[in-house]
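[09:14] KT: can someone run the structure on this one? pasting the chain below
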Amino acid sequence: MGEGRRRFSVLDSRGGPGDAPAFACVAIAGLGTVGASLALALRRAWPSTLMIGCDRNDRLEAAVSRGVIEVGADDLVIAGGADFVVLAGLPDRNAAALARLADLIQGRAVVMDLGGDEGTLGAAAATLPERLALISGALVPPLLEQGLEAASWRLFEGRAWRLAGLRADARAWDRVERAVRATGGIPVRTQPGRPGDPGSGGSSLGGRLSS
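[09:31] RB: done, structure tokens below
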């Protein structure tokens, strides 16, 4: 992973069958309250899905020790094999990560940006290769950032996810909506950027996301 870059791993001893996962490998960039809670919820629903994290080394260590993720690194290159990439950091970091994904991910994948501005995301979507779908998401009511320590799989139960497909086919929509339902959330489709639409004007999660 390069000098000064560290990687961590942990074995998941949980067993038991569950619903067939929509994704085999999930990478979450930003392990604050939102990102870590999402990882916990998806690991609980889909134990066979590999959960990858990208964040600072100290946060990665905490995430591994809590069983939030299985492997992690401080560079997004670790997400190269993921089929679902969730950008759960600050908007500027999400934008920087999004610009790299076309080079990092060689296969087909779905990207979900939490907290990005739909205007910026729409422009980015036009530059992405066809193999990468892009959906923006916003939680209703918002989930405020309180750090990894506040993460819980229960935080999404009954919470609406306002989703806008910036570049997504029917299969991408189906997989993302299955992921939302797996967390206990409720997927709500909106039209990106349409005046008066509750999903327009950006997809802020209404709080400070992972730094």
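[09:33] KT: thanks! Confidence is low (pLDDT under 50) at residues 1-17, 194-211.
[09:34] RB: yep, looked fine to me
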